[in-house]
Amino acid sequence: MLNVMTLSISEVGEKIQSLRSGSLKIILYIVVLAVSLFLVNFLFGWGSFEEIPPYLQPYSSIILLIHPYLVYIRAVLLFVLGYFVVKVISGLVYTYMRRVTDHPTAATVRSITRISGIAVLLSLMTSVFTVNPAAALTVGSFGGLVVGFAFQKILSHVIAGIFLLLSRPFTYGDTVTVSGHTGVVKQIKLMRLVLEAKDGTKEILIPSGTVVEQIIQKKISSNA
């Protein structure tokens, strides 16, 4: 028992350390991005020889050569460092989700987070290439719609699973009938409800969205 408690405390400590490390990485990437953009704008943001400060005029030929491609350099910096931020955030989401659900579900939520983050990055890159905020908003909305349609079914099951975990219409050990399947509640996961058949020979996995939509019959124990 003591070993189990020690292992549990150790796992919690590792997860907290992972969250702290991820948060520091995000801050570091944002700082590096801000400094990089500032330096690039400061060094190559001059459109003519007259605009270049005297201390940079010896390098005017290089500055004027790179200046037309400045927008592409900004976009590359934004996408590369932004992708690192999205990757860290999705990793933090996975770490948090593993506290309440299984690996496949946590991995799915991590993928959704990463794709959503890339959609946001695309909208930000659009704002770099154009000064029209409406264009960036349109790209961001389109990316959101793509993500929504692609993961509509998964998201519906996730939301239904959260509802089941919070409302607890049944608990472990209860005998329930859902969608024509009867069994003992073995696990309540984020994506699915796991029932054990009465004879104990098989498990019945029912998607959380189906559980929420169906009429649930719950056996009432009798002390008589």
Notes on the protein architecture:
By secondary structure, this protein is of the alpha+beta class. The chain folds into 2 domains: 2-150, no CATH class; 171-218, SH3 type barrels (Roll). Helix content is 65%, strand content 11%. A 5-stranded antiparallel sheet has the order 4-3-2-1-5. Helix 3 (70-97) runs antiparallel to helix 4. The two termini are 36 Å apart. The model is unreliable at 1-8 (pLDDT under 50).
Q: What would you say about this model in short?
A:
The protein is α+β, with helices and mostly antiparallel strands and 224 residues long. The chain is 65% helix and 11% strand. The chain contains 7 helices and 5 strands.
- Count of helical stretches: 7
From the N-terminal CA to the C-terminal CA, the straight-line distance is 36 Å
| Unreliable parts | 1-8
Q: Roughly how many Å is the radius of gyration?
A: 26 Å
Mean pLDDT: 76
> What sort of overall outline do the alpha carbons produce when their principal axes are compared?
elongated
The oligomerization state is single chain
Largest sheet: 5 strands, antiparallel
Instruction: Identify the strand order in the major beta sheet.
Output: 4-3-2-1-5
Order of helices and strands: HHHHHHEEEEHE
The domain tally reads 2
Number of extended strands: 5
Helix content: 55-70%
